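Lab meeting tomorrow. Look over both lines:
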Amino acid sequence: MMIPFSTVLVIIFTIIVSPTIAIVVAQSLKSYRKKRNPKFPRGPMGWPLVGSTFSFFKPHHSSSIGHFMEQNLSRWWWYRRLFRNSLPAHFPKLVGNSSLVLLMGDAYRHKKAILLAFFNKFRLQAGFLHDIERLAGGLLASWSEGGVTYMTENANKFAFYVIVKKALGLTPEDPETEQLRKEFMALYKGLYALPINLPGYTHWKALKARAKVVKTIKKKLDERKAKGSGGEEDDLLGHVIKESTYTPENICDTILGFIFGGVATSSTALCLAVYFLQNCPKAREQMREEHLECMKSKEENGKGKLTWDDYKNMEFTQNVISETLRVGNVAPYVWKKATKDIEFKGYFIPEGTTVITYLAAVHLDSSAFENPEQFNPWRLNTKDVKKANNLLPFGGGVRQCMGSELARVELSIFLHNLILNYDWESVEPDHPVSIPLVSFPKDLPIRVRAVDHSL
């Protein structure tokens, strides 16, 4: 069988020429850096084209910083104005150019002000707490006695139901909710996959999913405008229609960004809390006592539903959540980019260089936390300034996560319902792995047993 000459050329190029070009480019870049400034920060060039990508993405336990960071981490603190927020190039295609996380300057400040008004405590204190309690109770009631429950899937459902209720006014009973959740999860997976836009690849599926999610949001937007009731709805869509002059595309990006921020981290944090409490019976019992005391006082006062004061009085529960976020490292790093050439501590950082602020290294600093890899919620009882400064699960500064209080409310209410009504145990060993975001390889399978903690 004769092979076409063109095919032979392609094979020769693939096997010989292409790798040679890659090596030459890599060496040229290395020589350029040395000539420009020999004080460029130390670090391996890695393989041609891919650099140290595979080393960076190598899985490791979430309570460690991993081999790559151990070898390359520099404990430097930079003046924040020298760097701006930065994310990989494929993010805008998935979350939208007008999503808050991608905005800068006046556009960021304007949209942040609109979202902050929506996040005010009045909204959290009112019916929203009751919505979360209802959603948590409904989901837990669906668990079969003695059956296997995959916590990852259930946490995703709970976090999505909570945030989509506040974003679009949708409930789990609405016909489009479950399909929207599936499309969103496909979109989310694409954010942390290689951006290969070919049929069948995760990134390609994510782009398709984004189009469907945006279509659903746009449909809701058109329905509101047709009814003339956009500003009357107690959700983010109604709030943005009323308080802004954004284009439909901008509104869709705003809603999508809100859902992304509310689902991605909260669901992972909930899985981590269940995992750590499962492996720390003492913490689980002390937390249960706190919630029993809460319900006892409510029974004496003739009040049934949880209130904002109840949430605020759950001190040990907040310690459990904080320690979960510290050890689990849900969001281990922040991407930054140099706004200009920088000389710092004898090193040269060129303009445009991406720098990673590795928050996990702060959380696992042994000078601030004794045995930092161990889950120990009692360590947070003391008002230790150094510990407080080293606890940054929601970032810090002007770009600190606005939904931090919402996330704590979600976790507190779900754990309240779980710990008063169930005991649980692992079905098979599983543990959180960072690749680089945290996940459970086996989806954290647990077996639940209903319990009666009568007052």
Observations:
- Residues 330 and 341 are 31 Å apart (CA to CA).
- The first strand starts at residue 60 and ends at 61.
